[in-house]
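JOB MANIFEST
job_type = single_chain_structure
chain_count = 1
residues = 277
[input]
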Amino acid sequence: MGTTKFKWGVFSAIFGVALLGNASAAEPVPSDELRLQVKRHLVSRDRNIWLDIYTGTWKSHGLMQIRDERFVTSFEGYQRGTKLDLKSYDADRGLEAPPLFSIEGDLDVMKATMTAKITDNRSGVVRNVTLVPPFPIKDRPAFTFKFLGYHDAAAYRWHVTQIQVIDKNTKQAVQTLSGFDAMPLASYYEDINFDGYFDLRMSANSWNESIANENYLYWLYDPSTKRFKRSAQYEAQPGFLDTSFWCKELRFYGPNNFNYIDGKMVPARNTFCRPWD
């Protein structure tokens, strides 16, 4: 189980979504020009271990925080199908230093959960845990996405101008996102409004922009209509977005950090909070 390439797209079991070009369309975006990373927010059932992990990329990476130890570590590693092999690293110690933690994980893509064996290499203590979304939902939709656009020959790059949303079970189109121009190599699928449903965002800038100056296009999934909807509230904020699930915080690279309360952004009360705050 891994990555299977098609003529105009790529399907990946590690996403929980599929990236597909459309051979019948005038301008399907080639598979090697598409990069959709799935960011998963997970927590152990006792709420002690918090894990943010990027999957659907050539090297999975993320952050682990342990509440009872007030410990934070970054990690990276590899994914083969649903299996993850991750090691922690510390920039101060160097990438060649022995990892403090090792994580062996197995994703359940449809349930958005992960069973994991977390080994503390300092003490030899092994934790066998099930990691679940912080905000569980009953009916998780499964989609494939078809990306269409045009090739800018002068700039040697592709642009996405349309996304077809396909129900993965029925194979039927349920929505078409249009009226935009975005970069296919900077796309993310993750829950960014703390409701348990994955949302979609894509960079609207050139690749030369810094993360503080990037502008993104955002589509929030509305479970009541079962549709994605553009969000002017999110798009008003420049910079790459990072999220803090333990305190519902939106962190845009730059001066703006917000708490997300009752569907609205309010200035963050405790910027860069931790699970133990």
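[summary]
The radius of gyration is 19 Å.
The chain has two domains: 3-36+138-241, 41-132.
exit_status = 0
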